[in-house]
Input
Amino acid sequence: MPEHRSVPEVDRVAAARRAVERRRARAALKRDLTTRVVTPQRVLARATDDPESVDGSMRITDFLLALPAIGEGKRDRILTDLQISPVKRLGGLGVRQRAVLKAWLDGRFPPLEPRGGRSNLLVLAGPTAVGKGTVAGYIREHNPEIHLSVSATTRAPRPGEIDGVHYYFVNDAEFDRLIADGELLEHAVVHNKSRYGTPRAPIDRALAEGRTVLLEIDLQGARQVRRSEPDATLIFLLPPSWDELVHRLVGRGTEDAEERARRLRTAKVELAAQNEFDHLIVNEDVAAAAAEVVGLSTGSAR
Ligand code: 5GP
Output
């Protein structure tokens, strides 16, 4: 019957569409691996859990090539060393192959080791457009018990920003004075433009009162805090995917194309520094990410 004959055609179209979708998903996964938005160990674990998934259907050759700083020559040597056939897909590895691959990945991309101790000083950093400000703003609104540090900056206020609430807006001379007088815990030039710094006194006061303090600052600032306050808890916010980060940056519409390209280059450099942090949190949903941040404070139960 005609209806029956038309079914395979519909199937073919659907199958072609699925194939395109899968190719797209695999390309997105490669970008996530290259930019370190996802760890290779996580992809391997997902591939093992579900060999039919995008992760599971990825060729081992594509997987290795997507990892930071691995070219074709190195990839082929690794496969020979690990005795894994280049035709294998991640989901089709044997138990022994999975184990040697996992051990190799752990050696080359050491997993984060969560630190045992807790600190009242939380530092939230992460790449541009990941939503640090939104997560911090959510915490300001929902967790008044947490002291959100107000930074000093030389950039001009944006519409709706209030001096003393979102930032202390200062000029260059005043910023110089803050540095000279040792009033800043850390400071940095961000995006090659304006200067930002964390006033020390309000933090010391809040910590002395036993409160949790949250700093939302850039990577350079986080590194300075790590040096001056080694016990601080450093949190790195990750986007759910590289494509989502690009989407958020474009969607925000506050930067022109050249500036966006520059920020995305910086984002790659920043993502590569995630292992300097104590905790990684994926900002898929703002309320959930905020709850995870708050959950890391000393005041909250484990
Ligand atoms: P925005 O100008 O969009 O408010 O912030 C730009 C960047 O500056 C963000 O990445 C933010 O984390 C960072 N930032 C804000 N305050 C500070 C600060 O006190 N110190 C440092 N190092 N970075 C800051």
